[in-house]
Design a protein that fits this description.
The structure holds two protein chains of two kinds. Chain A is an alpha/beta fold. Chain A has two domains: 5-187, Thiamin diphosphate (ThDP)-binding fold, Pyr/PP domains (Rossmann fold), CATH 3.40.50.970; 265-375, Rossmann fold, CATH 3.40.50.920. Chain A is 39% helix and 20% strand. In chain A, the strands form three sheets. In chain A, strands 2, 3, 4, 5, 6, 7, 8 and 14 form an eight-stranded mixed β-sheet that branches. In chain A, helix 2 links the parallel strand 2 and strand 3. In chain A, helix 1 packs parallel to helix 2 (34-46) and helix 3 (57-69) packs parallel to helix 4. Chain B is of the alpha/beta class. Chain B has helices at 3-6, 24-38, 57-60, 73-83, 95-101, 103-112, 157-164, 177-189, 203-209, 215-225, 229-232, 257-270, and strands at 45-49, 64-67, 88-94, 117-122, 125-126, 132-133, 168-173, 194-199, 226-228, 244-251. In chain B, strand 5 and strand 6 form a beta hairpin. In chain B, helix 2 (24-38) packs across helix 8, helix 5 crosses helix 6 and helix 6 crosses helix 7 (157-164). The chains are: A alpha/beta, B alpha/beta. The interface between A and B is large, with 45 and 40 residues. Strand 10 of chain A pairs parallel with strand 2 of chain B.
């Protein structure tokens, strides 16, 4: 463990990235994620890494992918409008299977919205923002320490599964300061991408084994392979053959589905005897945790289910709670994005109530408590 | 195929997908001749391209090749080169790809003077989508989206990138292949952002809509319309009406981005800074 210190969420993301072995950062200034860019502009060069402020968000995402293809662990950080601009190249990374991490510190949208206000309006965009069916992993931290730990995990998942991994913060989590005790680098489990073990002339860049994740060669190592955003066969070259197209896209889905239990993550508080279970993530989960305590003081049996991986969603854990016939309250700083999927998963087994607030303020514990009393 | 260039092609990917009479293959030949002439290590050379007819070139070349998103080739290439400066990075783009959707990345790559070699296949039109006008379509020329003749003005690409900070700018045509090879070699030797514009014929779209004749006639017109910059010197320097200046147009010395970055880091480390 490192000595305890006071740290901001965005700063913890930057530290987590460095601990994970970050070697390349490309970004563009945008509130409320700018601290990540600023901190890495100071810290990354001295460690032999590369920092570049690109001309726009699109270019930042492109440079990250280019660097990753040479073997770098690469990161970019942004917020709403910038996240929208990055979408096309996030799709490229998903299709070409280039590991990278994107931190999106959510602010109130749409459009320029309220730049300094928290929101959770990018939950569906994080999953579906780029066109076409594609796999993606999205993690949502709720504390400063978790910003650090999940950034490390994001890199591990990106390297392990060759996917873009999105960290979905909100403005409150990004700017909040907390006392944290972080593990030393040596105490962390760091995963690096699997490289080909065959001679270059035997390398088939997109041929995957049973785990559906192909080994990845770096540019400049003599493998001389082709990377394209066109749907490609296992040799990496464009194909329009229906079987090859379907099988490639199916494998991209399968590599996440197959490892679903390895990826999903969630936390439960007081759910054992609960009659009402709050579902919340990010800063909303902090208010929800407080509401659970306040409700307990009133003798109400209330628990909290907090998805930490938003996509893929911890479905089994949710379904187990649903089978206990609890009443769910889904609290989100949007008009019901995750609630939609939760209603689908619960499938009418028990009631799902929504608590939505989109006014630029975090949802207060008292507001959640009122909702608990209403549905209890 | 000539044996001396065969090693640079993914022979099994040929024949290429370009139309009969397209000039793109000629540009590729000059490119691999230049790579051969420079003696570049094939394993340490990366070809990056955007989207469009010209950008399909990457797939035919036997290097590490990256066929990116539309307009973004230079931004991807910046990530590659900055991450691994020892790699030779060539960036192949079409005129629409490079100067319209990719215009911002173009001027900023030039401004940084990052050590990339950009080759712009200028066929004056969007070929892949069937012949719409691009920022390089001359005024009054026709395209499927400019059936009465384009009312826009075209970029002067060499002046654009020169103004943005490029340190090597040249132009050739697919008629002048030996010149093109030499210019690509010189461009690559320049330590900084280099751009070679290549005038190449698109008989299928641009030629047809503008009644420019057969592919051979379009090639002949490239010869007739070209004026070598060397022949302009000594005169008042004015380019005769309707002529295109070819040759090495501009060369300058300026700090290169990655060298500056690494020098700044070294200075910081020597001071014991963090």
């Amino acid at each position: 463990m490192m000595p305890a210190r006071l740290m901001q969420g965005n700063e913890a993301c930057a530290e987590g990235a460095l601990a994970a072995g970050l070697s390349f950062y490309a970004g563009y200034p945008i509130t409320p994620s700018t601290e990540i860019t600023e901190i890495l502009s100071r810290k990354l060069p001295a460690r032999g890494g590369r920092f570049i402020q690109m001309e726009d968000e699109i270019a930042s995402m492109a440079a990250v992918i280019g660097a990753s293809l040479t073997g770098a662990k690469a990161l970019t950080a942004t917020s709403g409008p910038g996240f929208s601009l990055k979408q096309e190249n996030i799709g490229f990374a998903a299709l070409a299977e280039v590991p990278c991490v994107i931190i999106n510190v959510q602010r109130l949208g749409p459009s320029t919205g309220v730049a300094t206000a928290p929101a959770q309006g990018d939950v569906m965009q994080a999953k579906w923002g780029t066109h076409g069916d594609h796999p993606v992993i999205v993690l949502s931290p709720a504390s400063v320490k978790e910003c650090f730990m999940l950034t490390v995990r994001s890199f591990n998942l990106a390297e392990r599964f060759r996917v873009p991994v999105i960290m979905l913060l909100d403005e409150v989590v990004g700017h909040m300061r907390e006392r944290v005790e972080l593990p030393a680098v040596g105490e962390l489990n760091i995963i690096n991408r699997r490289k080909p073990e065959v001679e270059p002339h035997r390398y088939v860049p997109y041929r995957a084994g049973d785990d559906k994740v192909p080994p990845m060669a770096c540019f400049g190592e003599g493998y001389r392979y082709h990377v394209t955003g066109l749907i490609h066969d296992e040799n990496g070259f464009a194909t329009e053959k229906p079987d090859a197209v379907q099988s490639h896209l199916k494998r991209l889905q399968d590599k996440i589905l197959l490892h679903h239990s390895e990826i999903v993550d969630s936390e439960q508080v007081n759910t054992g005897e609960a009659e009402v279970v709050l579902i919340a993530y990010g800063s909303t989960a902090r208010s929800a945790a407080r509401a659970v305590r306040l409700a307990g003081e009133e003798g109400l049996k209330v628990g909290l289910f907090r998805p930490i991986s938003i996509w893929p969603f911890p479905e089994q854990q949710l379904k187990e709670l649903a089978r206990k016939k609890v009443k769910f309250i889904v609290a989100e700083m949007n008009f019901g994005q995750l609630a939609l999927d939760i209603e689908r998963l619960v499938g009418g087994l028990c009631p799902v109530h929504r608590l939505n607030q989109v006014n630029g303020e975090l949802i207060k514990p008292g507001t959640i408590l009122e909702k608990i009393r209403e549905v209890y | 195929m000539l044996p001396e260039v065969e090693q640079y092609f993914r022979i099994e990917k040929l024949p290429h997908m370009w139309c009969p009479g397209c000039g793109n293959g000629i540009v590729l030949h000059s490119l691999v001749n230049a790579i051969s002439g420079l003696g570049l290590n094939q394993d340490k050379t990366v070809i990056v391209s955007g989207i469009g007819c010209a950008s399909r070139a990457a797939g035919y070349l036997d290097f590490d090749t990256l066929h990116t998103t539309h307009g973004r080739a230079l931004a991807f290439a910046t990530g590659i080169k900055f991450s691994r400066p020892e790699l030779n990075v060539f960036v192949l783009m079409g005129d629409g790809d490079c100067t319209a959707i990719g215009g911002n990345h173009l001027i900023h790559a030039a401004r940084r003077n990052i050590n990339l070699t950009a080759i712009v296949f200028n066929n004056h039109i969007y070929g892949m989508t069937g012949g719409q006008y691009s920022p390089m379509t001359p005024s009054k020329k026709r395209a499927t989206t400019a059936v009465f003749g384009s009312v826009e003005r075209a970029f002067n690409l060499p002046e654009l990138v020169k103004g943005a900070g490029a340190t090597y700018v040249a132009r050739a045509t697919t008629y002048h292949t030996a010149l093109l090879t030499n210019l690509i070699m010189e461009a690559h030797k320049n330590k900084g952002f280099s751009l070679v514009e290549v005038i190449t014929a698109c008989p299928t779209a641009y030629g047809r809509y503008n009644k420019l004749g057969s592919p051979a006639e379009m090639l002949k017109a490239q010869r007739e319309n070209a004026v070598n910059i060397k022949d302009l010197r000594g005169s008042n320097g004015e380019v005769p009406e309707g002529k295109v200046v070819i040759g090495e147009l501009y060369r300058a010395e300026a700090p290169e981005y990655i060298e500056e970055y690494l020098a700044a880091v070294k200075a910081l480390q020597e001071k014991g800074g963090k």
